[in-house]
Batch of 4 targets.
Target 1
Amino acid sequence: MPQQITAEQYQPHHREEWEAFVQRSNNGTMFHQQAFLEYHPEGRFQFHHILFRLGGKLIAVLPGGYFSGKPREFWSPVGASYGGFVAGSLPFETCLAIVECFMDYAAAQGWSDCYLIPPPIIYNTDIMQHFEYAMLFKKFDYELHYISHAIHLKRGATFLDAFDKTARKTVRKILREGEITIRDSDDYETFHRILCANKAKHNAKPTHSLDDLLRLKELMPDKLRLMMVYHNETPIAGSLLFFANTNVVLCFYNMLLYEYEHLKPVYLIMYETVRRAYAEGYTWVDIGVSQDTKSDNPMTPSLGLIEFKERFDARGVLRSTYHYSPAHNQ
C-alpha cells in the first residue's frame, strides 16, 4: 500500500460527502448518518467523528464522541445504537491499515480508552469481518457481548410455516377472527404514552422522548414506520420499525397495554413485520437484544424473552463492544 492512510475530524462541510459514503457502504446504517445524529439537542453529546482517506479518497468513516464527564473516553457510537468503522468491501490489508491509523489518531488525541460497537454481521451487504479481525489482531479486547435476535427472510412467502406451532396457531386465529387489526399510524403521541407505561412495568424508560421520535421522523421520514394494533379502534399495542439499511428492518420498540395481553397483539406485530420486510425486499428482521436488564451482569440472557423470540424463527447474533486502551499499547 504505497500511499499512507490519514485521519481527520469531521467538520460540517463534510456532511454531504459523509452521507453519500454511508449510503453506498457495505455496512453503514441509519445510525451512522449525520441526519440521525442531528436529532440530539445541541450539547447532549460532544461528537468527534473521523474520516479516513487514502490518497485523498474517502475510504472509511467512524462516528463517535464523548459522554458527559468522560472527555478522554472515545465511544463509537454516542447517541445511536451502532457505530464502528463504516466502509465498502475493502481488502483486509486496507482494513488493517485503517485500524492502525485509528490507533495512532487515538494516541495523538490523548484518549484513555476507546469503545467501538459495530452493527451485527447481518447488517453487511457482503459478509465481511475484516475490521473485527484487524482489531483483535491489534490487541483490542472485548468489553461486552450482547445476544441479539434476528429473523432471516430466506423462507420467503412461506415464512409463517417456520414459526413454531403456538405462534402459527395464534397468528392464524387472529387473522381469521379479525378482533384485532394492525395498520400504519402517525399517532406517535399515543404510541409513546403506551410505551412509557409498558416500560414502567419493568422499572425502565424509553431511550427516546416523544420529541426525539418526532424529530427523527422529521429528519428521516423514509426510515421510520409506526404500526399500531387496534381493538375496536382502541390502540392497544404497536411497533416502531427502523429501516436501518437495505438489508435489515429493526424492531426498535414493541409495546402493548397489558390489559389486552390475552389478545396476543405482539404475535400480530411479528407476523406483519416479517410479512412486510420480506415483501419489500429486505433480508433480515432484527428484533433486538435479549438481556435480563434486572441482572447485575449486563450479559445475562433473558431466557424467557429468547424462547419467545425463537417462536418466530429468530436466531441469536452477537452484538459486541470492542475496547482499546492507547496508553496500555504504547
Target 2
Amino acid sequence: MDLNLPLLPLRDIVVFPGMIVPLFVGRDKSVVALEKAMAANKEIFLVAQLDPAEDDPGKDDLYDIGVTATIMQLLKLPDGTVRVLVEGKQRAQLRDLVEHGSEYVEAAVSLVVEQSAEGPEATALMRSVADQFENYSKLNKKMPAETAVQLSEIETPSALADAVAANIQLKVSDKQSLLVEANPLRRLEMAFAFMEGELGVLQVEKKIRGRVKRQMEKTQREYYLNEQMKAIQRELGNDDGEGGDEVAEIQNKIDTMKLSKEAKAKANAELKKLRGMAPMSAEATVAGGS
C-alpha cells in the first residue's frame, strides 16, 4: 500500500513501531508538516537522517526505511519550537519526496508488511531476549525498573524485538539496522547480540565505578586518620615533659582519646617507635634498674 504523508526528518533518533516518544521540532518545514498532519488525519512519516547536521535534507540524506506515526499531542512553545508526542505505527519504505514549494515536504512511502513468527524457536528466543533485557536493565541505571516487566508481557516476536530496540542504547546506524530487518526472529537475534555487547560495556563501567568508589573511601579514611593523628600530635606537643613518665602519659592520652581503631593502632605503633628512640625515658630507666 502506497501513501503520501507529511515528512518529519529525525536528527538523532530512530522511532520503532509501538514506540511513543516526545520530539522537539524547530525547523520551519517540519513545523508546517506537523500542522498539515494535524489538519488531516494526524498521520506523519518519521525517518532518520544520515547526517544529523543537515538542516534541509533531500532524499539522499535520509535512510530508506522509517515509520508511519500518529501525532498524539502537539504543543507550540513560546520560542517558536513545537513539542510533539508521536506513536510509531508501521514500517514504511521511502520512495520519493514531494516538495510543496518552500513550505513543507511530503514523503511518498510504501508500507512494509510485518512478518509473523511462531513455534518453539520463537518462544525460546523471546524468553532469552526478555531475560537478557532484564540483566541489561539492572546494570543500566537510566532504565526505569518497570520497563523489563512491561517487555516480559509482550506476546509477539516482532513487537518484542521492536520494544527492546527502542529501549537499548545504540548508535543511530545500529538502531536503523534493527528497523530495516523485516524478519522478527532475525531481529530478536540482532537485539540479543547488541545487548550482549552493551552488557560487557556496562559491566566494565560498574567495575570502574566500584574501583573509584573504593579509592575515594580509602582516601577519605586516610584523611580522617591523618586528622586524628594531627590531633594526637597537638596533644603531645602540649606535654611539657616535667614531673612524670612521658611515655606513660602519651599512652594514657592514646587510651583515653576517642579514636577510630585505625587511628589508635597507628598511634600505638608510633608510640612503640618512640619507646625505641627514647632509651633515656623514665620507663627505660626503670626497666634497666629492676
Target 3
Amino acid sequence: MYTIPGHHHISMITKDAQANNHFYREILGLRRVKWTVNQDDPSMYHLFYGDKMGSPGTELSFFEIPLVGNTYRGTNAITQIGLLVPSTASLTYWQERLEMYNVSHSEITRYANRPALHFEDTEGLRMVLLAANHEKVAHWESWEDSKVPAEHRIQGMGSVEITVQRLDKLAKTLTEMFGYSEVARTKDEAIFQSIEGEVFGEIVVKYLDGPPEKPGRGSIHHLAIRVKNDTELAYWEAQVKARGFQTSGIVDRYYFKSLYFRESNGILFEIATDGPGFTIDGKVDTLGETLDLPPFLEERRQEIEAKLKPLEEES
C-alpha cells in the first residue's frame, strides 16, 4: 500500500496579482517559482511561490480573479495555512518583521502543540508561522536571494486547518482511505499526520456548525497532497472511486499530474505527483521571471498576453 508523504501545494484566490506578488516575495521572502495562467481559464494569472525549486510541500499558489468579492467566513472550508520557520527565535524575528510592514498578527502563542505566530495577508488569508524545530520537507532548498535572513526563512507548509460540520466524515477519509494517523483529539478538534511525528503532512480538523464559507479574495480553494508518480496517482484514483467519490479523472497539468475530488463536507482535495516540476520549461536561475505557458496554450500566447494586466517587477 502506498502512503502520502505530505502536502504538495495549496491554492488560494487573490483579487490583485500585483499586491499578492509584493506580499509573498518582498515581505514573506518566498521565491516566485512559476508565473503562468489558470489552465482552465487562461484569462487569469496563476502564481506559485515556494523554495528555490518550487519543491512539493513548499508551494503556495494563487489564482487572480480581479472581480472577486469578499470572503464570508464559515464552515466546510480550508481555513488556515501553517508555514514552517526554523525555531522559536524565528518567531520573534517574524513578529518584528510583520510589525515593520504593518501586517496584522497575533502575539507569539501556541497552535497544534507548537510555538506559533498567527497573521493575515492583505486580503485576510489566515496563516500561522510554526516553529518547526528541525522538521522540514527533506528536499527544501533555501533561495539565496530571499529578502529574509537564511536562519529565519520559511521552510515550506506545516499544519493546514480545515473546518467542517462533520468532523468524523473527514477523519474517516483521511485515516481509512489515505492512511493518515490521528495523533490528537478533543471534542471539537482532531490532528492528523500523513507521516506520524512530522508536521509537513499535518491537517488540523475543527468542528464548526453553521453556514458554509462563501469564498472570495483571501479564501483557500483547495489543498493538494503529494504522491510520487503516475503509478501512485492511478492507485489513489481507484481508492477514491471505490469509496464513492466523484473525481475529475487524471488531469495533466504539465508541471505535475493531478486528480481532484470533494469529500463529504465539500472540501476540495487535489492529489498531485511530485514531477516533472517547474524546471520542465525553465532554468533554475530564472524560474518565475517570465510568463510560462504549457505547450497546449503556447500557440495562444499573443491572445492570452493581450488579456492580462502586466505584472510590474519591483526593483
Target 4
Amino acid sequence: MKLTRRTALTSAAAGVALFSIGSPAAAKATRMRFAHPHPTSDSWQAAALQFADRIKTDTDGEYEVQVFPNGGLGSDQQIIGAVRGGSIDFCITGNPYFTGLAPVLNVLDLPFLFQSRNHVAAVMDGPIGDGMRSELEGSNIKALSTWDIGWRNLTNDRRAVATPDDIRGLKLRTTPNPAHIKAFQLLGASPTPMAFTELFTALETGTVDGQENPVTLILNARFYEVQKHLSLTRHAFTTAPLCMNNDKFAAYPAALQDVLLGAARDMAVTQRQMNEDAEATSLAELKTAGMEVVEEPDRAAFAEIVTEAVEQDFVATFGTDLLDQIKGAAS
C-alpha cells in the first residue's frame, strides 16, 4: 500500500502489519462492495466508480471496490442494514434514511434550511458535519463523508403547483424523515413514505400522485415518463452520507483508514460539482421530454407555512444550538 510518511510512522508505532505489493498476502485483491439505489446515469454512480479507482490506485491494487447501483443489493434501508451487519462494505443513500438511527440528523432535512450550495459545503465539510457524522457510530456506521442529492422539487401528474393551495389533496411519496412528512401534512398533502427503488412503479400505477426530488434525479430515474408537472419549489436540500461498517473501519490499518477517508472526502467535492453542473441541463431535458415546469412558484408562501412549525418540533427535542450553528454557517 502506498503510504505517506505520517501514516507509515503511525502504523509502525502502533505495531500494525501492512501489506506490500509482491507479498503472498497481496497476490489476490480484497474485494469490497459499494451499494446505492440510484440509476447508473446518476452522479452517485460516476462518483462511486471514481472512488473505486482511487481505492485501487492508492492501495496498489490490494483492495478493489465493486459498485452495485440501482438498488441491486437492496432498498435504501436494506443496504444500510447490510452495512451495519458487515455484509456490504459501503453504501450511500439520503440522510432521511439515517434519522431513525440518529434522530438529530433530522436537522439537515428541515424545510428551507440551506441558503446555497456553499452553505451546504460549509456545514458538511467542517466541524458541524464531523459532529453529525459521528452520531452514526453508535449504530455501527462510520460515515466517511457527505455527498449530496440536491435541491428537492415537486412533481405530480394531476396539476401544476404554483401556490400552497395547489398541493392540497395530493398523495405524495416522501422519505421517512419526520421533517418531510410534517411539512407536507401542513400543506394539506397526504405524504406516503416509501423506498426510492419502489417509486417509479408507484407513480406509474397511480399509487401516489407525485414525489419530490432534485431535477437531476427526476431525469435520471425517468420520472418524466409518469409525471407531467414539475414545480421548482427547492423546499429542502438533501445530503447523503457515504458509510461503511464502523467495526470494519476501526480494524483496518491506519494507512487504509486514511486512504478511505481521503478518497471519500475528495469525491464528496467532486460529486457535488457533478450535480451542480447537471442541474441546468437536466431541467432543459425535462422540458424537452414534455414536462410542464413552474419555475417560480411562491416559495415564500410555502416557507411561511412550514418552516417555523417544523423547526419547533426539532427544537423541542434537541434545543437550538445545532440549528443555530447551521444557520450561522450561511454567512
